[in-house]
Design a protein that fits this description.
alpha/beta; Alpha-Beta Plaits; TIM Barrel; 3 domains; 8-stranded mixed barrel; 5-stranded mixed sheet; about 55% helix; about 15% strand; rod-shaped
Length: about 650
């Protein structure tokens, strides 16, 4: 079978047209960030495909004088012109959306607006030419011929493309290089084909160039869409900075390139952010975070990374030579926010954990783990603005984790015991109460409380320990009562971590009730340093405990920043003066001690002084009107058996003068 050039044109146009229609279907199924760009690309792909199929049909039926064939020939030729101008129109729409998505244009540029007008004029001109046949006509044998103004019909796409070309070249810096290259190619192909058509017969070259342009645009759009989805997945929405995945991706990219060892990594947490939110409101708090992120991004180098993991947490990948300057920024940077009609400047600081990257083989996930551990250590253990992860710190953290595991086992195996430190009434020198202090005996040895209490406060296992101690004390009290003893009230410490429990008072009362002892025999001590929960939490807990019949004492009074405010808001039963005031070193401290005692007496709160070790301290407290003390001057913390003996023999000898 002989295949002539005409047949090749037909099959080629049908094939390319079908491909473009298939691409249009794919576009219709895809999700786009810009719906308008999706519609423009879909329509351009569709009309380009239809233009080629229509042109293929015009070749197929050219020279056909049969009635049906002649009708199809006329329809196909007309649609070929119409779809050509529609393709110009929708390509212009795609071009417009590509530039509008950069955010630099707020209305349609005049040159692109003129292309819309010119393409519509061309389409209208072709439709109106059905009668005068000035652009094209068919002879008696059904063959296609160009009319006297055919060149004008070809000049219209040339004018449109040249107009678009000038616009794209002028604003090329607003497009990514690869996008600019593809769009430029997609314009030049039909431009050259249009110019060639002036001398060459038919539309096949222009239509095929249009098909290639459609394929190129689909490919670059698919690529950019994929990049946009990846970027969206790796970007934190509020600040536009890399999120967790974005940061890990950047670390892995730099590790692959071998550049990672030039950097230090940081994980940092804005301090006092909860105060900003409480003072200014959540919206202004978000503005603080946005402006803080913007300041950091503007003041680090272009090849350095600042990311946000959410909340107050940020990460950074900073060159080692810029360590000092970056640490200064973490110490505090000015951030401006609008409060009412005024602009306020807030100095935002952060606590950070750092890691000096020495190996190219580190992954983003591993690095994030190192710096997260370092910032946690800086905040909760070292209490420093910045801590760098090193071998010493890794060893300390490993030991901490081992201790945490050991503590969990110790709680299960009940290795903790209450030791009772007696409280003495100095008027009678008799036992008047005790404080239950936790002691840990592990492998036959006593472990110092400072070794494990801070750690248990960090991981909140102290809450479990508090209730364990309360249970032990209640059990001991029940035993003593059943043995006919008359034990005085015992105070049990509850960590501030427990204040987050909305039914704390109910659970304490339930534990006491389980042992069927009077609730007034148990006193609950809460620390004064309440920096984790609002005042309302403490007020609610104290009132609830008092309703159940428990006495409530404020421990370590005078060490916090809101001591007087606490007494104003919370009706404590007992005020425990911190040992820092007892161990005074001058008249100023002595006057403060006297003032605290007088103030408590004036508002009807009992006072007890802890940490009394010397006769001189005892005498001064007695003179000031404080008659209940606890400290080594009378007794150290006692085991259960020794405290039982003290209950039976509650009278103390007057301590000798030093």
């Amino acid at each position: 079978m002989v295949v002539n050039a005409m047949s090749v044109h037909v099959y080629l146009l049908y094939c390319c047209g079908s491909i473009c229609l298939l691409l249009a279907a794919f576009v219709g199924l895809m999700d786009f960030q810009s719906v308008r760009q999706k519609k423009a690309l879909l329509r351009f792909e569709a009309v380009s495909g239809l233009a080629m199929i229509a042109d293929g049909m015009s070749y197929r039926f050219d020279g056909n004088t049969q009635g049906k064939g002649m009708v199809l020939l006329h329809i196909a030729t007309l649609l070929g012109f119409v779809f050509l101008y529609l393709a110009l129109y929708f390509f212009n729409s795609y071009l417009l959306e590509s530039f509008m998505s950069t955010g630099r244009f707020h209305r349609v540029p005049r040159r692109l607006l003129s292309v819309f007008v010119i393409s519509m004029v061309g389409m209208t001109m072709v439709v109106l030419d059905l009668i005068p046949k000035l652009i094209y006509y068919f002879d008696s044998e059904g063959h296609y011929h160009r009319g006297p103004v055919f060149t004008l019909a070809i000049l219209i796409p040339i004018i449109c493309i040249l107009t678009q070309l000038g616009f794209v070249l002028e604003y090329r810096e607003r497009l990514k290089k690869r996008v600019f290259t593809i769009i430029l190619t997609a314009m030049l192909l039909p431009l050259f084909a249009s110019i060639a058509m002036i001398a060459l017969e038919g539309f096949v070259y222009l239509d095929l160039s249009l098909g290639l342009s459609a394929v190129f645009l689909f490919a670059i759009t698919l690529s950019e869409q994929s990049r946009s989805l990846v970027k969206a997945a790796n970007t934190e929405t509020v600040t536009g900075l890399p999120n967790t995945y974005g940061f890990i991706h950047e670390v892995d990219r730099m590790a692959d390139s071998g550049e990672i060892t030039k950097y230090n990594a940081y994980y940092f947490d804005i301090v006092r952010m909860s105060r900003y939110n409480a003072k200014y409101g959540k919206d202004t708090g978000d503005t603080i975070i946005i402006n803080y992120a913007k300041y950091l991004r503007e003041h680090v180098q272009p090849d350095e990374i600042i990311g946000r993991l959410g909340g107050n947490y940020f990460v950074g990948l900073i060159k080692k030579e810029n360590t000092d300057s970056f640490l200064k920024m973490l110490a505090g940077v000015p951030v401006q926010v609008k409060v009412g009609n005024a602009i306020e400047t807030i100095f935002v600081a952060a606590v950070a954990g750092g890691y000096k990257i020495e190996t190219k083989s580190i992954s983003g996930g591993q690095l994030l783990g190192h710096i997260a551990t370092a910032v946690n250590y800086a905040k909760n253990v070292a209490k420093k603005p910045c801590v760098f992860m090193d071998q010493t710190l890794e060893d300390a953290i490993r030991e901490k984790r081992q201790l945490e595991q050991t503590l969990c086992v110790a709680l299960e195996q009940k290795e903790f015991f209450p030791y009772y430190q007696p409280k003495v009434d100095m008027k009678t020198n008799r036992l008047c109460g005790a404080e239950a202090l936790v002691r840990w005996v592990h492998d036959g040895e006593m472990v110092a409380p400072m070794t494990y209490i801070p750690l248990m406060e960090q991981n909140a296992t102290v809450c479990q320990l508090d209730f364990y101690m309360l249970d032990c004390v209640c059990r001991d009290m029940k035993t003593w009562i059943e043995c006919g003893m008359n034990p005085p009230r015992v105070s049990v410490n509850f960590s501030r971590k427990n204040l987050g429990n909305p039914i704390l008072a109910e659970e304490i009362a339930r534990t006491i009730k389980k042992y069927d002892i009077p609730t007034n025999m148990i006193q609950i001590e809460v620390t004064e340093t309440l920096d984790e929960f609002p005042m309302d939490y403490l007020v609610g807990v104290v009132k609830a405990l008092q309703r159940y019949g428990c006495s409530v004492a404020i421990d370590d009074f005078g060490t916090g920043s809101s001591s007087i405010g606490l007494l104003k808001e919370v009706a404590f039963d007992v005020l425990k003066i911190d040992r820092a005031f007892i161990d005074y070193h001058g008249e100023k401290e002595k006057s403060l001690l006297s003032y605290i005692i007088q103030m408590a007496d004036a508002i009807g709160i009992s006072v007890i002084a802890e940490g009394v070790e010397r006769k001189e301290q005892m005498e001064v407290l007695r003179e000031m009107g404080c008659h209940e003390i606890q400290g080594f001057i009378f007794d150290r913390p006692l085991r259960k058996e020794d405290y039982e003996a003290r209950i039976l023999n509650p009278l103390y000898k007057e301590p000798d003068l030093e």
